[in-house]
Design goal:
By secondary structure, the chain is mainly α. The protein has one domain: Ribonucleotide Reductase, subunit A (Orthogonal Bundle), CATH 1.10.620. The chain has twelve helices and no strands. α1 packs antiparallel against α4, α1 packs antiparallel against α8 and α6 runs antiparallel to α11. It starts with 42 loop residues before the first helix and ends with a helix. Pfam families: Metal_hydrol. InterPro entries: UCP07580.
Length: 334
């Protein structure tokens, strides 16, 4: 499937699962063998995607904090369960991508100057304010609207990476590809939660539309700046690729080649979201996301570790119960 076909409505005849019970998978990734340019011979495409590692840790920590503030206002039990599952997944996402930043630093590319700017944006510009009452709740709803818009984009990106067979053909590092697809699958899996939460607490179209405009502009600007930062600070590139400074047309070229998200698809995401009858469930494939999570090496290892921990905990409980019974029997026989 072409990368420009991402986030299409589910194909007729394909059964989509009902609302899933979301749970965090405590995944682990080993970056010891990862090259700085993990798409072989494609440093530009690598760094276009690497911007996600710069943006996501701080952004997803902010998502978690805002959602925690929203939980007490939720009156629907099913939605509350979905929000708590979302919080767990986003917290793990943030830490998984933070590990890549440490790897960049070890290779001589210090991401901290850019990441500190991202942290300032989320913690100061979009952070808590000295408000109370109705004004505090309005600021919470505004931030939820921004998150709903961003989550539409992360679902677009998640579906794209699940479909991006050209990354496999290019020899992309398998551990990095698993990170991107595990994360992308969970974004598709929980793509409706932020929108449903915003609808539950507000639902106003003007706020939703304005927030999406802000989110789309900010993401585009930050992505362009992020690519420039990475290429300029890459110790192997020093601002040039094969002796040339990167051009905007390279993003179009690599999008057509299927190595990065197609710019046309990203642009269409805005009017798609602004439709009055929009809902995230109309787009993307939950069944495809669930299918990948069933075979993802990191997700399978996390599930196995969770099951082993549960087994040991059950054994411990049984031993404690047996010891208590034995103690009672000894006490009774005296």
């Amino acid at each position: 499937m072409s990368s420009d076909h991402s986030l299409l409505p589910a194909r007729p005849g394909v059964d989509e699962p009902d609302r899933l019970v979301l749970h965090a998978r405590d995944v682990q990734f080993d970056w010891s063998n990862l090259d700085l340019h993990w798409i072989p011979n494609e440093p530009f495409a690598t760094h276009v995607i690497n911007v996600l590692h710069l943006l996501l840790p701080e952004g997803e920590r902010w998502f978690v904090e805002v959602f925690k503030q929203a939980v007490p206002h939720i009156t629907d039990d099913e939605l509350r369960e979905q929000v708590l599952g979302f919080i767990g997944q986003e917290a793990v996402h943030a830490e998984a991508h933070a590990g890549v930043l440490d790897h960049m630093d070890a290779h001589g590319l210090d991401p901290r100057p850019y990441v500190e700017q991202i942290a300032w944006m989320f913690r100061v510009v979009l952070g808590d304010r000295d408000l109370s009452g109705a004004r505090e709740f309005a600021w919470l709803r505004t931030r939820l609207a921004v998150i709903a818009g961003i989550e539409h984009y992360t679902a677009v990106l998640g579906q794209w990476v699940l479909d991006a067979k050209k990354l496999d053909e290019a020899g992309t590092d398998p551990t990095m590809l698993d990170l991107l697809r595990w994360h992308g699958a969970e974004e598709v899996e929980h793509r409706a939660v932020a929108y449903d939460l915003y609808t539950h607490l507000d639902g106003g179209y003007p706020r939703r539309a304005l927030a999406m405009g802000v989110a789309a502009f900010a993401l585009a600007a930050l992505w362009v700046r992020g690519v420039r930062f990475l290429i300029a600070n890459d110790p192997y590139l020093k601002g040039r690729i094969e002796g040339r400074r990167p051009k905007a047309s390279w993003a179009l070229r690599d999008g057509k080649r299927g190595l990065i998200p197609h710019l046309g698809r990203l642009a269409r995401a805005v009017p798609e979201y602004l439709r009055r009858r929009y809902h995230p469930s109309h787009h993307g494939s939950t069944s495809q996301a669930v299918a990948y999570l069933a075979v993802s090496p990191a997700a399978r290892a996390a599930d196995a570790a969770e099951q082993e921990a549960a087994r040991k905990e059950a054994e411990k409980a049984l031993k404690q119960q047996a010891a208590q019974r034995e103690a009672k029997q000894q006490e009774a026989s005296r």
